[in-house]
Specification:
118 residues; alpha+beta; 6 helices; globular
């Protein structure tokens, strides 16, 4: 595992980007990973077909929080069609680390929420 990726994940876990609430979101969804107790809620605002605001909150391990933080950063100013193209491989590449079978669900929790939003 590359230490630079580990540092990026820890940074996003300790200081998650877009963490908070949107009072008047266009759409919102909550997802959970019952195996480890992670719970993520994503709120999104679409305007003129693009994401103009996105926030998330919840509790989880470093991987689920960091992955969702990084994903919300990427989502800004994207169209629904662009967001629909995001897949498991994209998330794994974005994280830049090898994930065991037990951690993959954590890494994909934000993506699961995004797919439900769309």
């Amino acid at each position: 595992m590359s230490s630079i990726y580990t540092e990026i994940i820890l940074d996003h876990y300790q200081t998650p980007r877009n963490f908070g609430e949107i009072k008047n979101s266009t759409s919102q969804v909550e997802v959970a990973n019952p195996l480890c107790g992670d719970k993520i809620k994503i709120m999104i605002v679409f305007d003129r077909g693009k994401v103009t605001d996105v926030k998330f909150n919840g509790v989880g391990c470093a991987i689920s929080i960091a992955s969702t933080s990084m994903l919300t950063e990427f989502m800004k100013n994207k169209t629904k069609n662009q967001l629909k193209k995001i897949n498991k491989d994209f998330i794994i590449k974005m994280l830049g680390i090898n994930l065991g079978a037990n951690r993959i669900k954590c890494a994909l929790l934000g993506l699961e929420a995004l797919k439900k939003l769309l």
